Amino acid sequence: MKKGFTLIEAVIAITIATIIAVVVAVYIREGFAAWEFLSGQKNMTLTTRAAMNRVVKELRRIRQSTNITTHATKEITFIDVDSNTVTFSQSGSNLMRGSDILLENLQDPCGLTFTYHDASGAETAITAQMSFVRCRLIMVKGDNRYMLESAARIRVKRIK
């Protein structure tokens, strides 16, 4: 009696091993894709929150609503308490503070949105009536999308 495998037995064993390897590879690939997605979300969350904190912190430094010199949906320019002129705007997929890039990978268009509200919360285009500014950032990178919204109250008495 001969010891060993026939050709058919070897082919069947290789086929079964290949099927098992493919099934395991699918689960590993799905796990890796999930890890990659969550890692990207975490990174986007951190960078978007840092940029939003910076914008809100500086918006709170507006001396009075009449110091807002430009108030558009994608741009705001104002004079802060130290008499510095500050501008936030979207240029392509970048959030700009003046000429500096504060955040990359904004959704283009509409990744940066400012809305201006009076004391009752209604939107207003009249600078003297502005009580707070709401800012929304939408960041997109690959399959990841992250939106963050915040507001800053202008804390001084308005000129009527």
Please supply descriptive tags for the structure shown above.
160 residues; alpha+beta; 5-stranded antiparallel beta sheet; 3-stranded antiparallel beta sheet
Detailed description of the structure:
The protein has 160 residues and is α+β, with helices and mostly antiparallel strands. The protein has one helix at 7-59; strands at 68-71, 75-79, 85-91, 94-97, 100-103, 112-117, 132-141, 144-153. It has one domain. 33% of the residues lie in helices and 31% in strands. Strands 1-2-3-4-5 form a five-stranded antiparallel β-sheet, with helices on one face. The chain has a three-stranded antiparallel β-sheet with strand order 6-7-8, covered by helices on one side. A hairpin with a 2-residue loop joins strand 7 and strand 8 (144-153). It is rod-shaped, with a radius of gyration of 27 Å.
Task: Briefly say what this structure is.
With 160 residues, the protein is α+β, with helices and mostly antiparallel strands. It is 33% helix and 31% strand. It has one helix and eight strands, in the order αββββββββ.
Write the layout of secondary structure elements.
Blueprint: H1 7-59, E1 68-71, E2 75-79, E3 85-91, E4 94-97, E5 100-103, E6 112-117, E7 132-141, E8 144-153
Antiparallel strand pairs: 1-2, 2-3, 3-4, 4-5, 6-7, 7-8
Number of strands: 8
Low-confidence stretches: none
What would you call the shape? rod-shaped
Number of discrete domains: 1
Order of helices and strands: HEEEEEEEE
- Rounded to an integer in angstroms, the radius of gyration calculated over CA atoms is 27 Å
**Strand content bin:** 25-35%
Mean of pLDDT? 87
Q: Strands of the biggest beta sheet: in what spatial order?
A: 1-2-3-4-5
Please bin the fraction of helical residues: 25-40%
SS field, number of helical segments: 1
Distance between the termini: 107 Å
